[in-house]
Amino acid sequence: METVVCNLCGSDQYAPVYSMPDRLFFRGEFFTVVECRRCGLGFLNPRPTPAEMANYYPAEYFRSPAGASNARYMERRFRKEASYLAPLERSGATDRNKRLLDIGCATGAFPRFMARRGWQVEGVEIAEVAAGIADFPIHTQEFQDIPVREPTYDAVTAWAVLEHVHDPMAYFRKASAVLRRNGLFVFLVPNFASVASRKLFCEDIPRHIYFFTRETVRRYLEKTGFMLEREDNGRGVYKLAPHHWLGYQIRMHLLNKKYSFPDVPLTSKEFRRIHNLPSGFATAMKYAAYSPVSVIDRMLWPAIETAQILLKRYGVSTYVARKI
Length: 324
Ligand SMILES: [Zn+2]
Prior knowledge:
The chain has about 325 residues and is an alpha/beta fold. It has helices spanning about 50-55, 70-85, 85-90, 110-115, 170-180, 195-200, 215-225, 245-255, 270-275, 280-290, 290-310; strands spanning about 15-20, 25-35, 40-45, 100-105, 120-125, 140, 155-160, 180-190, 210, 225-230, 315-324. About 35% of the residues are buried. Zinc ion binds near residues 8, 38 and 39. Zinc ion (ZN) binds next to loops.
């Protein structure tokens, strides 16, 4: 483990916000999320070193569900992601293909999707899942270490990546260095100002190490030569569902009690996994008996999420920044 200072402003003054364990793999191991007193950046502190972090990414983490419904979901997600790059697709003469670098591209499905739209694509991926990519150039080191140093790309994308890296400032700097002037850096990160991130223990700890708000993103961009063009606080790409929002409200506001991790019931997925149950009606009944409030809570999500999006307090945000 290592203790660090603020990645954004360098301050060593920070205050704890909450503690929670690794919900996916090591439920007995707790970590603390702190907030910089000077700039408001959230980060895990202390945190696993880059070498130690490998333990928290077992092969199981990278397994994605196969099947037609997942394929439809991915297609919808990629179309939404591509929509943020539409200003570039429309602009200017197309005497050359626009160049895209996707950071954290996993098996390369998004770059491949963009290649079909006429982009010349490359990817960055440090996990082994990228080993099979042969149809476009792939960099297998950390983004700041790739052997591209000149303004080269029209767009750099990072979907749910920056919250995972040990040095986000290095990523912002590198994105600035490899983008052409007026190029776009488009990235999605969890929203530390949301109730899901800040109060409901929905972050993927300790794989998420940094927690951003609009203000801290703006400061990163100002320091590295970008202008923030657009923030989309919505659920079009990834969701951060407000698990157990109802239980939290009851405990905080009706019972006037604190809400800490032991008060969080298992999600239905965690319940199935921990008790090794198949999905189906019998399991759903068992879960309802275990946590009736969670069942009502689950039915409320669409309404709660819509309200959070309208209030710009949803759990994830996509930012579009222009290189100046
Ligand atoms: Zn700071």
